[in-house]
């Protein structure tokens, strides 16, 4: 099923925001140890659920104050088979935790969404391997089979869409989109790029978007960029090419450091908040359909406040 048949409200012109760097916030602000950088086990703790709820509410209040939409992205970036097994979660437990994640977010949506701040529940998908480097490359067929399990959990739990983050090569993106098409749920692909604006595979971002669209019948509802500072990719957004219009969202890092430097860092780099807000807002002058903003590594609700102060009001 082609995702273009769905009426996703965030595909209009209204600004939408998302949360920031969930995992880095939990580690550096809340003092959580996150084995395998996984946040989903917090859903199995009463204290963890309280912390997650308070975390999302910070961003919900920003969205409501500014009359923006909000996309509730689940804490499930690592809740797939290979990563789950490392944390002691088998198939049955992963099905339960992915289902509970969507239910948890749906409760927040039902409690706080209104006509000024519509909200969507998104099932968050991460790569099968490392998000910063290609440590085990899949074919599109292998990626489709692997990710369809988690996507199916999200769809049956009632998610509005699924979104795959830190995808670093096209075959995995193609497999994710095809799995979502089979499950009948809209899919978003968010590529990560290095400091040169290319995917970790070395492929230019525009070529990657064009390839995925070509091989999936323009399957993704839209594309995003995440886990990179705006200074890492703004220089490639200069050509008047059709693929630029396919990018509707950005979840940027606060830091200008490379992925290797971030991996080795023991301190949180929150960057320059005012500069971060301005650089995100400036991207709207380059990307004609950009109106979804969130944060990635090192960002929190203060970074989203900065962005909201600078983008155009609805």
Break the fold down into its secondary structure elements and pairings.
Layout: E1 16-17, H1 22-28, H2 46-66, E2 69-73, H3 81-86, H4 91-112, E3 119-125, H5 140-157, E4 161-167, H6 170-183, E5 187-191, H7 205-216, E6 222-226, H8 230-233, E7 247-252, H9 259-264, H10 273-282, E8 292-295, H11 301-310
Parallel strand pairs: 1-2, 1-8, 2-3, 3-4, 4-5, 5-6, 6-7, 7-8
Helix pairs in contact: 2-11, 4-5, 5-6, 6-7, 10-11
Describe this protein's structure.
- The structure is a single chain.
- The chain has one domain (3-310): Homocysteine-binding-like domain (TIM Barrel), CATH 3.20.20.330.
- An 8-stranded parallel barrel has the order 1-2-3-4-5-6-7-8, surrounded by 5 helices.
- The longest helix has 22 residues, at 91-112.
- Helix 4 packs across helix 5 (140-157) and helix 10 packs across helix 11 (301-310).
- It has helices spanning 22-28, 46-66, 81-86, 91-112, 140-157, 170-183, 205-216, 230-233, 259-264, 273-282, 301-310; strands at residues 16-17, 69-73, 119-125, 161-167, 187-191, 222-226, 247-252, 292-295.
- Strand 6 (222-226), helix 8 (230-233) and strand 7 (247-252) form a beta-alpha-beta unit.
- By secondary structure, the chain is α/β, with parallel strands linked by helices.
- 41% of the residues lie in helices and 13% in strands.
């Amino acid at each position: 099923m082609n995702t273009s048949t769905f009426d996703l409200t965030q595909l209009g012109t209204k600004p939408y925001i998302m949360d920031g760097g969930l995992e880095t916030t939990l580690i550096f602000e809340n003092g959580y140890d996150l084995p395998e950088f996984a946040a989903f086990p917090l859903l199995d703790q009463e204290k963890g659920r309280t912390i997650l709820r308070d975390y999302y509410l910070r961003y919900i209040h920003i969205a409501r104050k500014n009359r923006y939409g909000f996309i509730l992205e689940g804490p499930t970036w690592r809740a797939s088979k290979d990563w789950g097994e490392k944390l002691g979660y088998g198939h049955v437990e992963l099905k339960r935790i992915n289902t509970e994640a969507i239910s948890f977010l749906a409760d927040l949506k039902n409690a706080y969404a209104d006509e000024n701040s519509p909200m969507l529940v998104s099932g968050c998908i991460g790569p099968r391997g490392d998000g910063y480097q290609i440590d085990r490359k899949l074919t599109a067929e292998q990626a489709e089979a692997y990710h369809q399990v988690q996507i199916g959990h999200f769809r049956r739990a009632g998610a509005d869409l699924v979104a795959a983050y830190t995808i670093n090569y096209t075959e995995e993106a193609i497999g994710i989109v095809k799995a979502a098409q089979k499950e009948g749920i809209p899919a978003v692909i968010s590529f990560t790029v290095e400091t040169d604006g290319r995917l970790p595979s070395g492929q230019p971002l525009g070529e990657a978007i064009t390839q995925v669209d070509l091989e999936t019948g323009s399957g993704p509802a839209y594309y995003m960029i995440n886990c990179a500072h705006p200074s890492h990719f703004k220089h490639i957004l200069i050509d008047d090419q059709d693929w630029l219009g396919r990018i509707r969202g950005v979840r940027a890092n606060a830091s200008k450091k490379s992925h290797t430097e971030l991996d080795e860092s023991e301190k949180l780099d929150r960057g320059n908040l005012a500069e971060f807000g301005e650089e995100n807002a400036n991207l709207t002058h380059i990307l004609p359909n950009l109106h979804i903003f969130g944060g990635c590594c090192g960002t929190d609700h203060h970074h989203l406040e900065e962005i909201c102060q600078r983008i155009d009001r609805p």
